[in-house]
Amino acid sequence: MSLTRQDVEKIAHLARLSITDVEMPVYVKSLSSIVDFVAELSKAATDSVEPMAHPLAGQSQRLRADTVTETDLHEKYQANAPSVQAGLYVVPRVIE
Fold this sequence. Notes:
This protein is mainly α. The chain has a domain at about 5-40: Orthogonal Bundle (Histone, subunit A). The chain has three helices and two strands; from the N terminus they run αααββ. A two-stranded antiparallel sheet has the order 1-2. Strand 1 and strand 2 form a beta hairpin.
């Protein structure tokens, strides 16, 4: 499936990207090749493949110790806030 210039313009608009006319052909070609590759991957026969609960079958992942490595600086960060109450940022009500 090849993407058209209009498709890429819609994608750029949704992603809030500004793509120039000079850059557009490069984006069209690149995004089309990505979509084609994903379509090619979907053709792979995966019917006999069982889902994995963990990528390291029979192994465990090494985890770091759950220790505090940084000090609590919330008072320093909240010193610049316009309004703080009970350690929380106070913001204007948006929804009535």
